[in-house]
Amino acid sequence: MPKKKSILDFYEMKKRGEKVVWITAYDAPTAACAEAAGVDMLLVGDSLGMCVYGYPSTIPVTMEMCIRHTEAVRRAAPNTFVIGDMPFMSYQTTTADAVYNAGRFLKEAGADAIKLEGGVRVADKIKAIVEAGIVVFGHIGLTPQSSGQLGGFKAQGRTLETAKLMLQDALAVQEAGAHALLVEAVAPEVTKLIHERLRIPVYGIGAGPHCDGQLLIVSDLLGIFEAFTPKFVKKYANLAEEMKKAFAQYAEEVRNGTFPGPEHVYPMLPGEAEKLSEL
Ligand code: KIV
């Protein structure tokens, strides 16, 4: 079993040009499989609002949901770097709220780091959380919690003007003391520039190949989430189809009486069944 990585290991991987493999996980069985497969990092993303709870966005997600799911992932993947994701309104209000809620991920759920969305406008929150001794991952580009302001789940940095904003956000995250940056759905040319300009590791989701590692949402990667599939997703399995096939076969076998078979029951002990007539 390889030893659990720390943020220093991720800095070393960046120096060596070794890519970080990062996925989201929301539950114990998935986290255990990811750890067994050697995934480097797990994000317990607030995407759980859509992927697990069926909400249309991440906005309804609460701290309690995030803490419970992060705890489950931590228990099942004790040797993997786990990042808790700060949900909407857990850090936007005040720096005190931001530090308190970030701390809950470490104290109550055993997370190794937290992630929060935004650049320039959350720099004061990032600084305060870092000063509390917590490892912070920034997140810029398509930031789902502010997708209303972005006009939907839209790619960012596709014009010179918005590329400039992306670079300003990236630099603000680094200057605030964040330990790493996630860039989501940003034009690859802009991600390349950000990667060249920053000292801290830059990871991407839908931001092209010029980063220190890649993140995918587990439900997209496994083909479980069918509501929509962003262009940047590669499905490595089609579990939704497999699940539907399995459920349909189960239904057929229950209805035609072939399930359960003799191998699926706990018969009475030898000689006991004969005595049932005494009852
Ligand atoms: O919640 C999440 O999974 C995320 C990713 C979309 C980056 O923040």
Summarize the structure in words.
- This protein is of the alpha/beta class and 279 residues long.
- The protein has two domains: 7-237, Phosphoenolpyruvate-binding domains (TIM Barrel, Alpha-Beta Barrel), CATH 3.20.20; 242-278, no CATH class.
- Helices cover 41% and strands 14% of the residues.
- It has eleven helices and eight strands.
- It has helices at 7-16, 28-36, 48-51, 63-76, 95-109, 123-131, 147-150, 160-175, 188-197, 218-221, 239-256; strands at residues 20-24, 41-44, 81-85, 113-117, 136-141, 180-184, 202-205, 213-216.
- An eight-stranded parallel β-barrel has the order 1-2-3-4-5-6-7-8, surrounded by six helices.
- Strand 4, helix 6 and strand 5 form a beta-alpha-beta unit.
- Helix 8 runs parallel beside helix 9.
- The chain binds 3-methyl-2-oxobutanoic acid (KIV).
Bound molecules: 3-methyl-2-oxobutanoic acid
SSE series? HEHEHHEHEHEHHEHEEHH
Q: Summarize model confidence as the mean pLDDT.
A: 97
- What number of domains? 2
- Strands of the biggest beta sheet: in what spatial order? 1-2-3-4-5-6-7-8
Q: Helices and strands: which structural class?
A: alpha/beta
Name the poorly predicted regions. none
What is the CATH first-level class name of the largest domain? Answer: Alpha Beta
Outline type: elongated
Architecture per CATH nomenclature, i.e. the level-2 architecture of the largest domain: Alpha-Beta Barrel
